[in-house]
Amino acid sequence: MATLTESEVEKLFSGAPQYFARSEGHYTGAPHPSVAFPWDEELEIRDLTDHTQIEDKAWGSITAWPHITRDVNSDRSAAQRASEAKRRAHFYPRCRERPNMLSMFGLEKGSLGYQAALELAVSDALQEEQWGFERLGPRAPAIVKQRQNILTSKDGLRHVDETLIMEQLIKNGQRYCEPHPREPRISSELYNELFSQILHPPTKVLDHRDPYSLSVQIMALVRILAAPNMWIDFSHVEWRIRLGQLLWENSKDGNAENGSSAETSDQATGLHEERYWLLLQILLACELLVRLDAITEGEELGVESIRPAEIHKFEKEATKSVKWSLILARVWLENIEVVKTEASRPADAEGKSSGWLATLTKRKSLTRDHDAHSHQNRAPVYATRGKHVRRQVDGLAHFARRLRWPESGSYVSQITENCRSVVDGTPLSTTFARPSSRSDSHHLFHLGHPKEDAQKRPPPSKRMRISTALIPSGWLSKSYVSGLMLPGDGLCHFLMATLLENDPEALSRLGPTANLCGGFVYSGKSFWSTSCIVGRVLGAGKGAVECMGWISSDVIPQGLGDGWVDIQGEETREDALQVDRKARLWGKKAVERESSVLGDTDPSSVLPADFIIPFENVYLEKEPPALDIALKALNLRGPVRSNHAIPADDSEVIPSSDVSSASQPSTYAASVTFAVTDLDSEEVQEYTYSLTKDINFVTAHPCVPSQHVKIMKSPSSPTIQQVDLSGHGISGRTASAVGHPLHKYYTYVALHLSELLVKEDITLESLLGSYSSSAAQQRPTVNPSSPRNSNASARVLVIDCITGFQPQPQEHEIPLSPVISRTDSNASAAMLASPTSSNLALGGNVGSGERDGTEAAALESASKKMHSESRRRQFGSDMEILVRAICAEKGWNALISRRRRGCLACAIREAGALGWKVVIRVD
User: For residues 557 and 526, is the Cβ–Cβ distance under 8 A?
Assistant: First the structure.
C-alpha cells in the first residue's frame, strides 16, 4: 500500500482549518490561539471565520486587535471620510484584551469562537480579586510614599501644574492629528519640551550616538510609567470600566446622600487628587505614544533606525501596565479633544450657560482651592469633548434596533434625543464622590462577588459579575457617548446601560439597580447577557437575536413581570481546575497534536486507509424516532441567597413583585421544560433540565471540502462499510454529510438526541466508554481506533440533532452557501473511499467526475456571498434549546457544528484542540 506524499496530503486537506497555539514573543503572556488554512491561497477560504464581524464603527473600541469594522451607516460627513482615509504607520503594542473580543461572538447565537474559548481560562478577569470594589477611598501608604519619592527624585517627575497637563494634552492632540514632521530638529524639540516641563533630565548620557534621540525619551517615559504603586493599572478589568466613573461622575448626588460634610470635603479633596494623577498618567502615556508613533513612522519611511537591543530593552521594561496605558492613550487621542474655554464665570452665570458644543462637554476647573471665587480668580477652564458623538449615538440606535427593543420605532428617536442631551447638558463638577455603601445609592457599583469572609470566598470566575445603579444621563452613558472605552466586554455593559439610562420608560419599570451580567424582563420580552447561561441556552431558539453580548428572546420566565434577575450558575470542576497557568492554552504542543489532520501518524508514513468520512446519521439496529420538540416554560426558582443549590422539590415560582421591590436583583436557579412528542406513536413526554453549570458553546469553524480530490469506487475501502457510493447508506438513506476525511486516531461515537433523552442519568464517560472496543466493530457510527488504542474510550461524543428533525426556515433566513457541501444524491461519491493510492486520484474535482464550469462558477459565487455576509444567520429551534439545556445540566462544554457550514471531521479535530468531548451536530 503506497503512502501519500506531502503534496497529496495538502490537496486532500485543502479547505480544512488547522488549529494552533503559538507564543507571540517574550513578555507577552499566554500563547495566542489561531486558526489557519496553511495549504490554501484563495481568499474565500483563508478569510473564513467562526465569529461575526463588528457591525458598527461605534463598537470598534471593544478590541485592541487590528480589525475591519462593517460600516452599516453610509451617511458620513466628508470630514469623517477624510479622517478614516488618512492612515499612517503607528506603534502597535503587543498587548491585547483576553479573551479576544473579536472571537467572543460566534456565528451561532450564544456561542464563542475557538480563540475566545481557549483564552477564557487565562482571561483578564481572573486577575481580579472580585470581592467587591471600594478602592476609591483613602490611598494606601505605599502609593503615597511612592508618589513622594518619584516627585523628589532627581531623575523623576517634576511638579506638573494642572494647567500644564491640559495644555500638553491639547498639544499632543494636535500632533496626533497632523502628519509627523521629519525634520532632524524634531527629536531635539521634543527632548527639550519633555525634560524642561515634565521630567527631570537624565543624570547620565544614555546614548552616545545621539543624546537627544527619541529612544532616550521613550525609555525615560517607560521608566516613569512602569514605577509600581503609582499609577492605575488598566490591565485590570475593573479599572477599564471605572475610567469613566473617575472622570465624569457628578458628586452632587453623592454629597446630598452623605451625612457628614467634613467627610464629604475630605473625600472630594482626595478624589480630586486621584483625578489629577489619572490625567497626568494619560499625559505621560500620550507623550510616550506620540514618540513611539514618530519612530515607527520614521522606520517605515527609512529615516529612522531602531537597534534590536533597543527593541529588546523596551519589550522587557514596558510592563503590561505600561502597554495598557499606551492603549488608553490611543483611545484618548482617537476620541477625546481637550479645548480651552473662556475664564470661569460666577455660579449664577454658569447656570444659564447652554451647551457650547454639540459634543460631550465637561468642565474642568482645576483649581485646588475649591472655596475661591471663580469669577474673581478668572482661572482658565478646560473642556473635554468627544470627537465622534454622532457615530456613538447612531451605534446605540443600531444596537436597539438589532435587539428588537420594544417599540423601537418611537423609542430609538427618543433615546437618541436623550443621548444628545448628555452632550449638551449642564457642566459637571470637578470633584468625584466615592460610591456609598448604602444599597439605595445612585453610585453603587460592584465588580465581582460581594465581600465575604476569606474562608468563604468562591474561586475566581472567568467572567466578571457586574451590578450597578443607573442614573439618567449618568457616567455610564458619558463613557459610551464620548467613545472613551478600553478593550474588553465593558462596551457590552456600556451599551445596555446607556440604552436604559436614556429610556425613561424602561428605567422606571426596571428600577435603578441593574445586574449587567444577568438578565431582565421588559415589555413582553426577555433580555440576557451572554455572560449568563440562560442567555447562551435561549440564544439557540427561533426568533432570538444576539448583538454585542446581549440576547433578546420572546421566552419569558414563568410568573415574572418586568424586572432584573440574576441567575445562579457554577463552573464545572474541570473548568475550575484549568485556569491561569494550568489552562489548556499553555499546552501548545498538545493543542496542535490532538487536532492534527494526520492524527498521531508519522507524516512520512500516511496511508489512504488510515482515513474515513465520519457520519452522524447511519443506524443499523433501529431507525431513531421522529420527534417534535416544544419549549413549554422557562422557570426561575428561588431566590437563592447562598451558594447552595435549590432543593429539587422546591417548585414555588417567585412572583414579579419580589424582583421589582428588591434593591438588588434576586438570584434564581433556572430550569427549562419541554414537551417531546414521538410522531410515530404520538406519545408525549415532558422533560425538565436545570441550567446549573456555567458551560460554554463554540461555533465549529467553517471549512470548504477539497476541490482537488476525485474518488473512485473500491469495494475494499473501509469507508464502503458505511457508505454505498451509489448514493445510499446502509440504512437506505442518502448520505447527509460531505467533507474532509478523519484520521482513525480520532475515535468518536454518534448518539441520536432521542437516545440521550432516555438516558437521563448516564455520564459522559459511560457514553464514551460503552462504545469502545467491541461496540466499534458492530456500530458503523464509531470510528475504529488504531490497535494500540483499541481498549480506550471514544474521544468525542457526537449528538445527532439532524436525523428525524425537519429544519424550519425563518422568514429572514439566509440560505447557506452550497460550497460547504452538496445535498444531491451524488454527493456521497465525493467521499474518500479508497485504501490504495491507485483509487485516490488527487488533482481533480470533488465527485465521481469533473465538475463542469457552470457548477464551479456557481459554487465560487456562493462562497463569496457567504464570505461577505457578516450577519449571523437566523437559525434556531426549540430542539436546539433542548440539546443546549441538556449540556448545561450535565456540565458539558460543546461545539456546535452546523451541516453545510462545516464538516463533522473538522469539528471533531477542533474538539481535540479545545480538549472538549461533545459535538452537537445540527442541520
Answer: yes
Q: Tell me the sheet residues that pair with 527.
A: 520, 552
Strand order in the sheet with 466-469: 445-447, 466-469, 513-515
* pLDDT number for residue 278: 93
Burial (CB count <10 Å: 0-12, 13-18, 19+), residue 852:
exposed
Determine which of 587-591, 760-764, 829-833 has the lowest per-residue pLDDT on average: 829-833
Nearest alpha carbon to residue 64 among 373, 320, 341, 311: 320
Instruction: Please tell me whether the overall predicted TM-score, pTM, comes out greater than 0.85 for this model.
Output: no
Q: Which of 317, 338, 335, 337 is nearest to 327 (CA)?
A: 335
Tens digit of each residue's pLDDT (9 = 90 or more) over 283-314 = 999 999 999 988 888 776 656 667 888 888 88
User: DSSP secondary-structure letter at 777?
Assistant: H
Residue 548 is predicted with a pLDDT of: 95
Q: State whether the Cα torsion 617-623-624-626 is positive or negative.
A: positive
Mind giving me the DSSP string for 318-355? Answer: S-HHHHHHHHHHHHHHHHEEEEEEPPP--HHHHHHPPP
For residues 146 and 228, the answer to whether their CB atoms sit within 8 Å is: yes
Query: Cis peptide before 608, with omega less than 30 degrees from 0?
Result: no
CA distance 906 to 913: 11
C-alpha cell recorded at residue 153: 527624585
Q: In what order do the strands lie in the sheet with 363-364?
A: 336-341, 381-386, 363-364
- The angle formed by the CA atoms of residues 414, 417 and 418, to the nearest 5 degrees, is 85
Query: Would you say 406 and 523 are in contact if contact means Cβ atoms under 8 Å apart?
Result: yes
Cell numbers placing 103 = 472571537
**Measured distance CA(58)–CA(390) in Å, rounded:** 9
User: pLDDT tens digit string along 800-813?
Assistant: 999 888 655 443 33
Distance CA 817, CA 631 (A): 30
Measure the CA–CA gap between 713 and 873, rounded to whole angstroms. 37
Does the pLDDT value for residue 644 go beyond 60? no
pLDDT digits (tens, 9 = 90+) for 685-705: 999 999 999 999 999 999 998
Domain spans, the chain:
141-342+356-388, 591-622+699-922, 627-695
User: Which has the closest alpha carbon to 114: 529, 601, 592?
Assistant: 592
